[in-house]
Structure formats: C-alpha cells, structure tokens
C-alpha cells in the first residue's frame, strides 16, 4: 500500500513539471510548406458566364464559362461556389491560364470531371464591358451573363493548367492556342518550431499530456524540382484517373522549369490529353444550337419562351381532294426556330372549304403561309376559299412539298398526331392551274417561283362576269388572266404577272419557308420556336 502511495505522489508532482522541446522541421514538398510561395502568375482565376454575340444565333445561343487567370489555393472553392449558382447548367469551360498551384489544379480537374464539363483553351473577347473593367455594370435582366466571342490566337494553358485541363470530358486546344508543360516546382520552407510540452511519468514511462507551439522561426527556404516517389505516383494516378497517358507527365518532368515545352496537336492526341483535333470552337459555335437536338450549353434568351406545340389534325382525303397538313422545315441548321407552312395539294373539291376552315381554326390564329399545288377544281369553292384566305391574311405561294418521309396520301403513311410533318417546299414541284389561281389571288403575299407551272386553260376559264367581282374584291386586275395560258414560269413571266397585279413580288416559295427566314428581324409569323429537343425523334 505504501509503495502504491509513493507512485501516485510521484505522478502528481511530475505532472506539473514543464519541459521545453525544440525541433527543426524540413518539409519535403510544397504541401508541407507553411509559408506562401512567391505569387508571380498574375491575377487569380475568375469565372463568368458568357453568351455568344455571333450574328444569327439568337434566340438560342451557346453559352460558356470563361476561366482566365492564375490557379491559386482559393480557386477550387471559388469554382465550386460559382457552379453552385449555375445549378444544373452544364457549360463548357474556356480557359486561359499561366498555371499556378498543382494541388489546386488537381482539385479543379476533379471538379470538372465530377460535373461532366467540357473544356477548351481559348480567350473571350467581350463585346460590351469586361469583368475586370472598372465601372462595368450589367443590366440586372442579363442575370450576370456577359456577351462575347471566342478566339484562340494568344490563348494558352501552361504549367499546372494542363492538370486542370485533363479533367474535362471533351478537351480541345486547336492549332492557334498554346498548351505548355514543364517540371513541377516545390517551394520548401525551413522552420524552427519551439513546443511547450506537459507530461508525467507513470511506472517509469513518460506520458505526454499536452503539446503547444510557442514559437515559429523561419530559418531558410528554397525551391526544388526533385519530387519524391509518393508525389510522382500521385500525379501519375491522377492522369490515369482522367484517362490521360503518363507520357504527358514524363514530358513535363523532362523539361527544365526555366523553359516551357509546347505540345503539338498530334502529341496531345497521342497522350489522350485532347479528345480530338477539333478546335475549341466546336464547343461554343452557334452551329451547336442549330441541330434537331441542340447542345446542352444552348440557352434561350431570357425574354424568349418556346411557343405552344399543338398542331391541327392532318386532313388527307383519300379521293384526291385537297389535303391540308402543317409542315415544318427539315432544313439542316434551322432548329429550334424553324418556319412552318400549310401544304395544300390536290384537287379543289366541294369539301376543301370545310377542311381549310377546320385547319385554320385549329391553328388558333397562327398565320402560316399556304404552299399550294393543284390542278384546280370547283370555281365557287375556290372563290370561297380565297375569301377565307384573305380574311385570315395568309401568304400564298405555288410550290410542291417534298416530305422527309412518306407523302400524306401514300399507302400506309400515318402522320403523327398533334405534330407537324417534316419536309421542304420547292417551286419547280408546284403547279397552280385553272381555279387554283383564284387561291393565289387571295394571298397577302403572292409568289410563283421559277419552274412552277401556272395558268388557266382556255376551255376551263369561266366567263369574265364570274371572275370580275372576285378579282376586284382581291385587288387583282381582271386582265391578269387575259393571257394566262399554262406556262412554266421564268423570270420574265414573274415580271409580267407582277406588273399585272397577280403577284406581289418576284421570287420563289423559299422567301416564305427557307430555313434562314427565321433569323430575320423581325422574325416572320410562321417561325415557331420549339422546346429544346422536341422534334429530335422525328427527324
């Protein structure tokens, strides 16, 4: 019992003894260094969203993240915060950077891969004010989105930036941009650290109770390019994780830190550092927004909304009477804002009027041009249809619709419900004979293009007294049909018919339905902006 008491007493006394210990720490890598390395890479990387300012892209334009500046320890956190504000948006990153901290670059690369973001080397030319410009204030309606254009000349991704770049899903550089690598440099700081340690001895063994740093003193610092095995293994493992070959790291480590090795496009492709030889433009070109399935970085202008997508039931009589179907242009590059029209083909039978009326009613006031091809038919029905066309203020052009799939009257051809058909219309496939000319006369804009067959057979022409009142109502001169034998229209015929008042202008059906008309200002009424990807499966 006495021995036990002595042991307890000794422990109590020694627990109050203060011991001073000193140690000299020599960190072996940059991550172990406590002091900040020299900052000589310029301003830190900033992130902003940019919308293409290219002509013809609105209302659906590509957007991207402009990332320019040096990679600092704070850059990954800034990038995470920026992406959080974007929500589910997946925009490609367009980067220019002299490099910076390797550890931060690796973290940025992993963020890119986790978010499945593409990356390209490029610079953004801001068309209004730039983010760094003093006094640059965006209209609140812009929601922090700048406008600009991508260019590659002078763009670069050097040193640690190459590690960040490796994290992109699709990776592009282009022949005018610069990708450079060299040895990794570690900043090593030597410090003398003094600790205050409290301990006690129990059964002859020292047990530390607390340890506190009381002083730090820098005794030296230096840089080194000699990396330990653990660091090299970590770098190689990162590149493997990103699908990039070790060759990239080896080439960099064989290049002195005082130099910079520019990688050629073929080298980068062989290393898997880039995913194709395409330039960075493939990520942000306005062409990526003009397919049936626009790229994920294509966004509608804030004040533009997709239009309702309901369509009238296609009316296709089996007996050769005139059909009325809504057609959307299948011309490459017009989506998502494409022209639409009513294809009216077949004989003008007694029920054509009711079919036209049902089609216009179902369109709910949408004004689509009538692209007509007909041998004519019943004169009274044609004039009644003409009056309906004039009241609705529709344009009329002679042309035949070339459908992307089967034609409406083909056996087994079924049009999808509440959806347009797809195709193109050309003048030389159209004809407008006899009573069909009365439909043309009713159009607000009236066109008969090159190669179309147009006119009135003498034996089928009604007496002038039948046509006079109708033509006067339409504002078309009666003598327009005095010399209207069926012809294959050429330029001189257009000029003659325009002078007679039957046509409003020279030109073909393309003036109404060409895929490019929806890029005009103001946008024609027959252009419909579809919901993104709405028609992808129908192409």
TrEMBL record:
SUPFAM superfamilies: ClpP/crotonase. The lineage of its organism: Bacteria, Pseudomonadati, Pseudomonadota, Alphaproteobacteria, Hyphomicrobiales. Keywords: Signal. The keyword Signal applies. Residues 1-32 form the signal peptide. This is Uncharacterized protein.
């Amino acid at each position: 019992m006495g021995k036990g008491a002595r042991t307890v007493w000794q422990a109590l006394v020694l627990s109050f003894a203060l011991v001073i210990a000193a140690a000299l720490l020599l960190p072996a890598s940059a991550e172990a260094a406590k002091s900040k390395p020299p900052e000589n890479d310029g301003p830190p990387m900033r992130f902003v969203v940019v919308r293409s300012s290219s002509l013809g892209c609105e209302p659906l334009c590509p957007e991207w993240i402009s990332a320019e500046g040096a990679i600092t320890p704070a850059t990954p956190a800034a990038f995470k915060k920026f992406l959080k504000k974007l929500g589910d948006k997946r925009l490609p990153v367009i980067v220019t950077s002299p490099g910076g901290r390797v550890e931060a670059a690796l973290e940025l690369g992993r963020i890119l891969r986790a978010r499945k973001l593409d990356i390209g080397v490029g610079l953004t030319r801001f068309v209004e004010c730039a983010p760094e410009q003093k006094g640059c204030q965006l209209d609140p309606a812009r929601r922090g989105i700048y406008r600009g254009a991508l260019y590659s000349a002078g763009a670069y991704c050097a040193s640690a930036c190459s590690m960040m770049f490796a994290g992109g899903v699709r990776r592009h550089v282009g022949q005018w941009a610069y990708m450079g690598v060299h040895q990794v440099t570690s900043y090593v700081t030597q410090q003398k650290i003094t600790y205050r340690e409290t301990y006690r001895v129990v059964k002859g063994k020292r047990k530390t109770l607390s340890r506190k740093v009381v002083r730090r003193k820098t005794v030296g610092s230096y840089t080194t390019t000699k990396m330990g095995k653990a660091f090299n293994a970590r770098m190689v493992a990162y590149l493997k994780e990103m699908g990039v070959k070790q060759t990239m790291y080896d080439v960099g480590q064989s290049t002195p830190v005082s130099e910079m090795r520019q990688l050629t496009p073929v080298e980068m492709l062989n290393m898997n550092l880039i995913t194709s030889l395409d330039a960075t433009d493939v990520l942000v070109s306005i062409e990526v927004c003009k397919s049936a399935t626009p790229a994920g970085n294509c966004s509608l202008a804030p004040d533009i909304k997709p239009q309702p997508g309901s369509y009238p039931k296609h009316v296709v009589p089996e007996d050769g009477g005139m059909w009325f179907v809504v057609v959307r242009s299948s011309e490459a590059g017009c989506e998502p804002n494409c022209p639409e029209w009513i294809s009216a083909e077949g004989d003008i039978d007694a029920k054509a009027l009711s079919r036209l009326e049902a089609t216009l009613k179902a369109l709910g006031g949408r004004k689509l041009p009538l692209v007509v091809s007909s041998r004519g038919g019943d004169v009274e029905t044609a004039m009644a249809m003409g009056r309906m066309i004039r009241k609705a203020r529709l344009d009329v052009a002679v042309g035949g619709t070339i459908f992307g799939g089967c034609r409406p009257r083909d056996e087994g051809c079924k049009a999808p419900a509440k959806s347009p058909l797809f195709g193109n219309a050309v003048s030389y496939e159209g004809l407008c004979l006899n009573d069909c000319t009365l439909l043309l006369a009713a159009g607000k804009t009236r066109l008969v293009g090159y190669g179309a067959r147009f006119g009135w057979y003498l034996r089928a022409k009604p007496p002038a007294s039948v046509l006079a009142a109708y033509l006067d109502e339409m504002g078309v001169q009666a003598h327009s049909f005095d010399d209207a034998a069926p012809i294959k229209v050429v330029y001189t015929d257009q000029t003659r018919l325009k002078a007679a008042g039957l046509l409003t202008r020279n030109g073909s059906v393309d003036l109404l339905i060409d895929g490019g008309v929806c890029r005009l200002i103001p946008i024609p009424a027959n252009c419909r902006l579809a919901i993104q990807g709405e028609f992808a499966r129908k192409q």
